[in-house]
């Protein structure tokens, strides 16, 4: 009896919610169609891994489907800007997407790659020397002991996953001590300790910078993960400030993604295939 009662309530609630979601998303699809008629005023910002490239066991096996690459290449010709905004280092992001006309923003929001050149965001520049110094010290002290120092430009990553445990402890302590002395921000991840300039840089600051630089009236962001929420929020802020006339947050639903990627989105699509639908509408059909 009890089970029956709760079961009968469930479809009603789900039904009401579905109706609301459908109405919101049909408005968003209409908006996309409308935007596609005036592409020169529109910025297309997109995450790459999990959004354009399906998630695979190791990042070096990632691939962007050929159809999406062709669509993006077409969009880059008529839209104000098409930018791939990624956690990867920018040359890596470019290799994955393989398109010249796209702007790449990466390395935790510190780097832009366009027209063949990598630019470090100006606020981070004063720390470039300090990051180099830390990398040099880490090479002298930690590399011989089995740590791997990754050359990432404006940020430094010291990996100790494959080193003995005591080298891991030593790496963390060393990078924390020296990094703090140099005024850098230190974060510890899984098997890695990283040093970066102590300024705010993320997908949100990336979106803001590109909007201010390229001056679109409308902008959308497509993403699937936690770091993409910063970009969603930046779009909202820019619209509230009147910098953008309209914005659109496209969430890519997946089993591992955070719930906010759905709840904070204006339009939710399923996986890389759903992103293809968005790009096709932007391309005019
Ligand atoms: Mg992603």
Automatic annotation (TrEMBL):
Signal peptide: none annotated. It catalyses: alpha,alpha-trehalose 6-phosphate + H2O = alpha,alpha-trehalose + phosphate. One of its GO terms (biological process) is trehalose biosynthetic process. Pathway: Glycan biosynthesis; trehalose biosynthesis. Its EC number is 3.1.3.12. It is an enzyme of class 3 (hydrolase). Keywords: Hydrolase, Magnesium, Metal-binding. Gene3D superfamilies: HAD superfamily/HAD-like, Trehalose-6-phosphate phosphatase related protein, domain 2. It comes from the Bacteria. GO terms for molecular function: metal ion binding; trehalose-phosphatase activity. Its cofactor is Mg(2+). Removes the phosphate from trehalose 6-phosphate to produce free trehalose. PANTHER family: TREHALOSE 6-PHOSPHATE PHOSPHATASE. Belongs to the trehalose phosphatase family. This is Trehalose 6-phosphate phosphatase. It comes from Rubrobacter marinus. The gene is otsB.
């Amino acid at each position: 009896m009890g089970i029956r009662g709760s079961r009968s309530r469930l479809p009603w609630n789900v039904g009401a919610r579905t109706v609301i979601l459908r109405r919101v998303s049909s408005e968003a699809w209409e908006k996309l169609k409308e935007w596609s008629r005036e592409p020169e005023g529109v910025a297309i910002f997109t995450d790459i891994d999990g959004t354009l490239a399906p998630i695979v066991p190791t990042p070096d096996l990632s691939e962007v489907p050929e159809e999406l690459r062709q669509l993006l290449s077409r969009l880059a010709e008529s839209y104000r800007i098409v930018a791939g905004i990624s956690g990867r280092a920018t040359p890596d992001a470019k290799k994955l997407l393989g398109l010249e006309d796209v702007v790449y923003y990466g390395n935790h929001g510190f780097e832009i790659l366009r027209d063949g050149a990598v630019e470090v965001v100006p606020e981070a520049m004063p720390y470039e020397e300090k990051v180099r110094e830390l990398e040099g010290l880490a090479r002298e002290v930690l590399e011989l002991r089995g740590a791997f120092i990754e050359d990432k430009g404006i940020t430094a990553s010291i990996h100790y996953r494959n080193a003995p445990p005591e080298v891991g402890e030593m790496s963390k302590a060393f990078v924390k001590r020296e990094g703090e002395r140099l005024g850098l921000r230190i974060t510890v991840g899984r098997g890695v300790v990283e040093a970066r300039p102590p300024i705010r840089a993320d997908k949100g600051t990336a979106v803001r910078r590109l909007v201010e630089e390229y001056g679109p009236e409308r902008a959308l962001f497509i993403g699937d993960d936690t770091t993409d929420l910063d970009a969603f929020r930046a779009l909202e802020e820019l619209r509230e400030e009147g910098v953008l006339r309209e914005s659109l947050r496209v969430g890519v639903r997946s089993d591992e993604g955070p719930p906010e990627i759905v709840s904070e989105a204006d339009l939710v699509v399923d996986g890389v295939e759903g992103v293809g639908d968005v790009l096709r509408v932007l391309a005019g059909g």
